[in-house]
Amino acid sequence: MHTQDYIELENQYNAHNYHPLDVVIESAQGAWVTDVDGKKYLDFLSAYSAVNQGHNHPRIVKAMIDQLGKVALTSRAFRNNQLPLLAKELCELTGYEMMLPMNSGAEAVETAIKAARKWGYTVKGVPNGEHGQAEVIACADNFHGRTIMITGMSTEPQYRFGFGPFTPGFKTIPYGDAQALTDAITPNTVAFLVEPIQGEAGVHIPPEGYLREVAAICKRNNVLFIADEIQSGLGRAGKLFAHQWEGIRADVVIIGKALSGGLYPVSAVLSSKEILGVFEPGDHGSTFGGSPLACAVAREALKVLVDEDLFERSRELGEYFKGRLQRLESSSIKEVRGRGLFIGVELYPEAGGARRFCEALKDRGLLCKETHQHVIRFAPPLVIKKEDLDWAYTQIEDVLMNL
Ligand SMILES: *Cc1c(COP(=O)(O)O)cnc(C)c1O
């Protein structure tokens, strides 16, 4: 079977909820993937930052296989010997007091909202009544996942159309506007949910000082500051968490994606005992969340980030690569922005959309993905070699100068 055969099968039997590039990957190692016809490509998306450690990192693969030889799933009805160690190691690495493990990023976002609402009723003193009155404020152009509750927070018409009615209790305000947060807060506001860098929206970095200011507004109003670091965290933006660029500490941090190095769906909410302590047995849970397999994989994935100093590596290589892109004089480029190896290249509308550039780059062996219409996101695995970045630059230069 060849590329076209797989594409036809997928189109026939799989729902069309994505518009993938027509490359059918069979295997991968580090920053490189190989398709079913034996062609190699450099991965410049990293599964939306799930494979920050590189594809199939040998240490994480080994930890996973070792754990598979013992036990994969116990359910939380019983205890296992990996969950306590992950909890301790993750809290020590991040400086939070407690964690709560889930599987997908969206589930961890839901978990953080549940924690914030219950904290609002039981600690802050928001009236609960029959339906509850807690409010959560989110930002325009956010991306927090695809469940119906989260979709209800979205301002993207396509994410919403056809999927209502939505969960009440959410407001959206413009991203990057601290005054809008002050104006939106009421006595019933329990949390402000924000991406420190908006990834899906096109790698948008808020104005300098914004995160510091909103963190202070939250503190003054006894509102929880929740940072969705699912994509921007764990080294992608050149630090453990992207919000640390402003020297602040979120009350609640949501992580996922690279927490497993891409080998298994693992997500988590990190916070204090006061906040995560609101959960009592039976309040919340997940069959697979906190499984020994998930925890063993996550423990090793975190160790790899630290041992290979991938936070610093992302910062250095990101500065280098962003600098090269910023010096590229292409009439298609409106702006190059980014932190660490999390880089967005925004094109002028006259360039005809980012998709055709991604397709041309694919033909030259570089895999990246447009986000919205006019932005190309560059987010290679953080283990990428400098010479591979330079090779990628040559392809990008060629396509942006000549297409
Ligand atoms: C990917 C992502 C999510 C959702 O994670 P899933 O694992 O796809 O559910 C949530 N927030 C951000 C910022 C993301 O990038």
Overview of this protein structure:
The chain has 403 residues and is of the alpha/beta class. It has a seven-stranded mixed β-sheet with strand order 4-10-9-8-7-5-6, with helices on both faces. The chain has a four-stranded mixed β-sheet with strand order 1-2-3-13. The chain has a four-stranded antiparallel β-sheet with strand order 11-12-15-14, with helices on one face. A hairpin with a 4-residue loop joins strand 2 and strand 3. The protein is globular, with a radius of gyration of 21 Å. The two termini are 32 Å apart. The mean pLDDT is 97. The protein binds pyridoxal-5'-phosphate. The site of pyridoxal-5'-phosphate has 14 residues, from helix 5.
Secondary-structure topology with pairs:
Blueprint lengths: L2 H11 L11 E5 L2 E4 L4 E4 L2 H4 L8 H11 L14 H12 L3 E5 L2 H20 L10 E5 L8 H4 L5 H4 L9 E4 L4 H7 L4 E6 L15 H11 L3 E5 L23 E4 L11 E5 L1 H4 L15 H16 L2 H17 L6 E7 L2 E6 L6 H10 L2 E2 L1 E3 L3 E4 L7 H17 L1
Parallel strand pairs: 3-13, 5-6, 5-7, 7-8, 8-9
Antiparallel strand pairs: 1-2, 2-3, 4-10, 9-10, 11-12, 12-15, 14-15
Helix pairs in contact: 3-11, 4-11, 12-14
Bound molecules: pyridoxal-5'-phosphate.
